[in-house]
Amino acid sequence: MEKTILTTIIITGPPGIGKTTLVRNICSNLQNKGHLIQGFYTEEVRNAGIGQRIGFDVVSLEGKRGILSRENPPDQLRRPKVGRYSVFVHDFEDLILPLLNFKDCRPEPELLVIDEVGKMELLSKRFESAMGYVLKNKLPVVVTIPEKTSLPLVEQLKKTPGSVLFQVTKSNRNTLAAKIIDLITTSLLVTK
Fold first, then answer.
1. CA–CA distance, 18 with 149 (Å, rounded to integer)
2. pLDDT, tens digit, for every residue of 150-163?
3. Would you say 118 and 89 are in contact if contact means Cβ atoms under 8 Å apart?
4. Pair 27, 58 in one domain
5. Radius of gyration over alpha carbons of the chain, in Å?
6. pTM, rounded to two decimals
7. CATH of the domain at 171
């Protein structure tokens, strides 16, 4: 019987549980060990005065930042919405798509990090297509997904041969990084 090789680590949990913090810890640890990692994470943006969330930014692992969404964008341009947030699809694509373009002789990283595959990100059909390429070519990836969703790409991720799903909870969020890092390194998901 053929053994399935681990290619996809999926992290899920309720909003605010610490999925992005977990991903950042995993990335930091692997980068400190010299692994070539590429990707992005999302970060809440809060109003400086009252601390209320007003949107999300997308941040590459190299530190480049772009707008993913805002509650009341000052430019008043029509954009697709998810809940109360206007989604800046073009800004997202401009920052993220170059990180996922391996067709133009860009070296493939040892590990891709995608935080997250959700409704806002999937408003970009180009992002969805790039994720299809990642799955088709079995590129090693750590990806976060919303806990409760029926998005087709999320369902496809869950059913991918070689995928492992981790549920983040308050009781395991501080120990899960070490477990996932160990799985990544011992399964040869990364090669060094």
1. 18
2. 899 999 999 988 89
3. no
4. no
5. 17
6. 0.90
7. 3.40.50.300
